[in-house]
Amino acid sequence: MKIGIDIQTTLGQKTGFGFYVENLVAELKKIDRKNEYVYFAPKKESDLSMPGRFYWDQFSISYRARQAKVDIFHQPSFSLPLLFPGKVIATVHDLIAVLFAEHIPFFSRQFFGHWMPFTYHKADHIMCISEHTKKDLVKIIGVPEEKISVVYLAASEDYKPAKSVKMPPARLGITQPYFLHVGTLNPRKNLAFLIDVFFAIARKYPNYQLVFTGKRGWYFEELFEQVKKLGLQKSIIFTDYLTEAEKIQLYQASFGFLFPSIYEGFGLPPLEAMKCGIPVIASNASSIPEVVGDAGILLPPDDKIEWVKAISNLIQRHNLRQTMMIKGFQQAQKFSWRRNASETLEIYEKVYRSNNQKNQKDEKTFKIKW
To answer: What's the number of domains the chain is made of?
Structure first.
């Protein structure tokens, strides 16, 4: 079996899509010596953003996959190539562009919110990264449930408790024990709410800081204005994009991880935090409970009083923090890239077998008619 995979998201500054593809490919190489893999990536940087991405997804991939004679094509990130005549599998991470369209610029909304979901109907099989995303796909897009499997993501093996904690680089301006948030700065992450919560925390516990690390997304300027208006410039720090090693160091040295997101397709940052042995306080929305389980504190993403109370308890109660660190680390062990790759490979083989069975049936029908 020859399997084609689009790896465009591993180029440039990687986000969650890119890390998913990178880890999946690496693990498939370890466990599968039988099948042949062909990886497709654009050579031009312009193909990594619109409108080049549309041309890459629909025309370049279709042409290259046909030329390579792949049996199955896996699109792990974006729209399925409608012109490719073979079997296609999609990974659907979330329906953010559909559910939060008002927070997304027009052209991105058209591509991610309309075109991509339209192409999902061509898929021979779809992998969702959580049960919550699967339910959304069935209910909102109308994909038949029997065409969907849930294959959970995982955190890299590089995420682990530090043998000896190193303080973050001085250039970041972190001078006190700090809480951490990792993720793109956009409205869906509910960060304006978290800043309001931390304003109350800073008045009670002025010796703690809050650190945001992640790409600057849509409307991030409003967060900077909010911090300035509340006079929290020394208490709240925004870092620019960090390397993986720097991000892991930031996790390992943090006092706790805060994640009040309104919607996630999976919720990788809380898993990364738990794998580093860091206690997690997160929202109880969307897929996040599937990841955190009972190992963290899950709260409504709009209940400021409960969030302030939970963070205060974590600061005051050393035993609570220790217990959450242990439970979180144990919870994180349930997710692995080996499991993800094994389940993905099973789906490749299932789709390939179904294609062969169909071809054999068609051949018999042809002979009878002939």
So the answer is: 2
Cα separation, 20 vs 76, in Å, equals: 8
Q: Cα–Cα distance between 171 and 239 in angstroms, integer? A: 10
The CB density around residue 192, as the number of other CB atoms within 10 Å, is 15
As averages over each run of 10 residues, the pLDDT of the chain (370 residues) reads 93 81 96 97 69 79 94 93 94 91 77 85 97 97 97 96 88 94 91 98 97 85 95 94 90 98 96 98 98 98 98 98 98 98 98 74 44
51 by Cβ neighbours in 10 Å (0-12 / 13-18 / 19+) ranks as exposed
DSSP 167: P
Q: Read off the tokens for 199.
A: 């304003």
- Global confidence as pTM: 0.89
- Its sign, for the CA torsion 43, 92, 293, 338, is negative
CA dist., res. 281 & res. 301, Å (int) = 11
Domain span at residue 345? Answer: 2-154+337-369
